[in-house]
């Protein structure tokens, strides 16, 4: 095979290629870069300057140092499944792809920890340790392909986070390349709650704006001795919502407590994993309990009783592991399934106090009517984490804008009842203006001040997470600086 | 009664008195200030300039603004039960005591939240909601008098944090007065994992160096349906340690899993709540499981089986709630009980990987021999959070210094096996130099940079949490600043 070498005169590309060991670890031609112009949020597209594929922390640090010294914008990317545009190269960034850093470095069963590289795929961790009776809890629906590095950046959640918590609850240590190329370790030995400021928590969910994670120590859990799964069909969405409240009020903490509405059911039944859900029900609940065997039957009985009290049409318990797996495949591929009933769809992600569920679902129906766009709901009902899916057709002029406006109004409806604009998908570029729904100027300033400490040149993933500062923020910043003189 | 007015010409004291509404809300005479010269860490003592008692957030903000404008050092104080000196006025601070801000503002059972002022006593929250079937999980041993504001500052733990997590896992929202007097709300509606940087996590456990918390939204939990408690006596400490490992390895997560060694047992049996523990055993375990009733007996059986496998001398299950309460009173007053067998004692607080328990306990015995000081161990064995209690007599010349050195060596022993220098008591002034055991200069600098963002004049609780910067840190800081020019 003929060695072609780097076919560009761009000195930055040549220098970056030297750092990562040549042409096989860098992309720089337009036809190659197109695949990196967006992530799971496809509404905005921008070409990166180049994509580099480092093999280890030292290469990441060298790339970052080079970018820092030459004022090149840069950002890190995992599998690119993020739903809020966090990995989109808005400013023609150098993309540092971490997919080649995909080793499972170590597993320590006795102390319940594993150490992985950021490009290690989420589900592979559970697959690597399940035969010894352990698993990794955070389970975003994209877990078969998303990376743990990306999960850390977005503080990813998942169906089972009701009982087990989101990614931040499972991160024990991080190795991080700071935006100037320095390498630091946080909680390096995987001891929970290390002294000093909670940098672990700060980095987790910082959406790639404070540093690049190059090694991750995660908590692993013992498989629950038993689990059982219930599927419940409701004629009225209010009854399903009430059943959710009743289950929580009974003091149970199911491992998962998911809801789908009628439009969502239409979608999943038309897609790859149909279950045979009736299409004329307003809502279904998918409920899973796990733990030691002894307590499970009593909890299932209680859940069945609650569902019947709330006028459930039909309720059943999974009879085999295969049936359970099929119900979950139907649920976990639910977002993509909307493609079966609509050319395009926009996933939203808001959080509300559980008690406001019926009210907000009604508001979302009204938003749907107002814009003339169908909105499906598939979501983590147990923790009040809504996922309205706005169905639209991007080929119709103006419909993308309408879908974005409808999605934003859904978030406003969440914020209005004391909720939040994202549960687990992050802010990225998608929702940065919506941050104003819940944060004052001072509160945004307190955060951008922190970003400036880590990322003073703002070369790392700029233009994400925070709204464009208004004049009043600038004035406050000047005033603050003056106070210090 | 004669109105005396403020009896000092100090204009700052007069101004502060005006802010808080007069002489009844300020202390400034030396005889009154002595009570505030230390907290639960009694080795260092310093007089504050004054102690003010604000009644609300606005008064706190006005005091802070005044201090900020007049360059007066200041710090916040709750009940003063902290064990690492976080509330000691090293620099003659104005102490802002939050004990009058002690309201339970609201309870929202449906969404499992309560809002409290920072001076609200920890145990009062559980007492206020237990008749409705709820409780607040973090239970430091001082919970009958420590305040939730102080718990937030120190990220306090407790015996039941093995299953339920430490304070940071239960904080949903904070109102904070920043060091310049601005008021911000973080996660104001109690939605978990709000977007943007995790300021909730950053503030929680920041030991009063980033801001003053004036309102706290906490998660409340439903009382477990049932709980049972086991007391197990072991002839050999290695067997007790192994039983701890076996219980965790069996996939159980007890609500609490506590250990006491022989010296500790001698202390608690000589103090206020003796249980009748045999004095010739090397260790006891106090184990509690909770949850739905159905699973409890099986878990207890499994625990008894494990203890017997590990040569337990005697093991018993609490037969009545009264017996259980007595066992816990014996454990929770354990630190103070050391006063019954030693004139003085120093509590240490380290964390180790659970698998290193036997090794580190042995090292602590050697440290005890080396210094000729007895060291008792009462601790959260389930999560590897050790509490060596160094017994000494401060009236003997040089013995305080020896005790401090022995305590520091215990921490070094924890760090040496990949552990940490504090589990739940904080760094304060006690352990700031020990931070070097686990953090590099870069890692400390990353943290002090964050402090400087919030607290740029370093008037708020200065000289805590981080080691005195060495010359190399200064050089790095200069270099970093130069890079930005």
From TrEMBL, chains A, B:
Task: Give the superkingdom in one word.
Answer: Bacteria
Please report the name of this protein according to its UniProt entry. Answer: Glycolate oxidase
Q: Which UniProt keywords are present, listed alphabetically? A: FAD, Flavoprotein, Oxidoreductase
Species the sequence originates in: Parageobacillus toebii NBRC 107807
Q: What is the lineage of its organism?
A: Bacteria, Bacillati, Bacillota, Bacilli, Bacillales
Q: Which PROSITE patterns match?
A: FAD_PCMH
Against InterPro entries, the record matches this protein to: FAD-bd_oxidored_4_C, FAD-bd_PCMH, FAD-bd_PCMH-like_sf, FAD-bd_PCMH_sub1, FAD-bd_PCMH_sub2, FAD-linked_Oxase-like_C, FAD-linked_OxidoTrans_Type4, Oxid_FAD_bind_N
- Gene Ontology MF, one: (S)-2-hydroxy-acid oxidase activity
The cofactor required is: FAD
Q: What is its EC number?
A: 1.1.3.15
Q: Which Pfam families match?
A: FAD-oxidase_C, FAD_binding_4
């Amino acid at each position: 095979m003929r060695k072609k070498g780097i076919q560009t005169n761009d000195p930055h590309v040549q220098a970056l290629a030297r750092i990562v060991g040549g042409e096989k670890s860098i992309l720089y031609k337009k036809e190659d870069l197109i695949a990196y112009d967006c992530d799971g949020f496809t509404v905005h597209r921008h070409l990166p300057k180049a994509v580099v594929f480092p093999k280890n922390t030292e290469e990441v640090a060298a790339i970052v140092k080079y970018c820092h010294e030459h004022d090149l914008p840069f950002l890190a990317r995992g599998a690119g499944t993020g739903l809020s545009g966090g990995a989109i190269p808005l400013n023609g960034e150098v993309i540092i792809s971490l997919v080649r850093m995909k080793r499972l470095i170590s597993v320590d069963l006795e102390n319940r920890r594993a150490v992985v590289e950021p490009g290690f795929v989420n589900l592979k961790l559970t697959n690597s340790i399940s035969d010894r009776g352990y698993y990794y809890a955070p389970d975003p629906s994209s877990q078969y392909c998303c990376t743990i590095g990306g999960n850390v950046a977005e503080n990813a959640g998942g169906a089972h986070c009701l009982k087990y918590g989101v990614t931040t609850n499972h991160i024990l240590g991080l190795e991080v390349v700071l935006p100037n190329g320095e390498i630091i370790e946080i909680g390096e030995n995987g001891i929970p709650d290390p002294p000093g400021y909670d940098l672990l928590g700060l980095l987790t969910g910082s959406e790639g704006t404070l540093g690049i994670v190059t090694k991750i120590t995660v908590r692993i859990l013992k498989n629950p001795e038993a689990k059982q799964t219930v599927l419940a069909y409701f004629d009225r969405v209010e009854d399903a919502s009430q059943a959710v409240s009743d289950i929580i009020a009974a003091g149970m903490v199911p491992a998962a407590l998911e809801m789908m509405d009628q439009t969502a059911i239409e979608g999943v039944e038309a897609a790859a994993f149909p279950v045979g859900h009736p299409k004329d029900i307003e809502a279904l609940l998918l409920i899973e309990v796990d733990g030691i065997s002894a307590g499970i039957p009593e909890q299932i009985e209680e859940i069945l009783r609650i569902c019947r009290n709330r006028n459930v049409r039909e309720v059943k318990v999974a009879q085999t592991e295969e049936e359970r797996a099929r119900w979950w495949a139907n649920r976990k591929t639910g977002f993509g399934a909307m493609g079966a009933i609509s050319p395009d769809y926009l996933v939203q992600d808001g959080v509300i106090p559980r008690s406001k569920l019926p009210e907000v679902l009604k508001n979302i129906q009204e938003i749907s009517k107002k814009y003339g766009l169908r909105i499906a709901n598939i979501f983590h009902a147990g923790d009040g984490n809504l996922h309205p899916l706005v169905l639209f057709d991007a080929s119709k002029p103006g419909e993308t804008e309408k879908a974005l406006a409808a999605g934003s109004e859904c978030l406003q409806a969440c914020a209005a009842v004391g909720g939040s604009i994202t549960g687990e998908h992050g802010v990225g570029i998608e929702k940065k203006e919506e941050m104003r729904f819940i944060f004052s100027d001072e509160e945004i300033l307190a955060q951008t001040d922190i970003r400036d400490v880590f990322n003073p040149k703002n070369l790392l993933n700029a233009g994400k997470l925070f709204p464009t500062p208004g004049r009043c923020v600038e004035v406050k910043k000047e005033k603050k600086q003056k106070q210090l003189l």
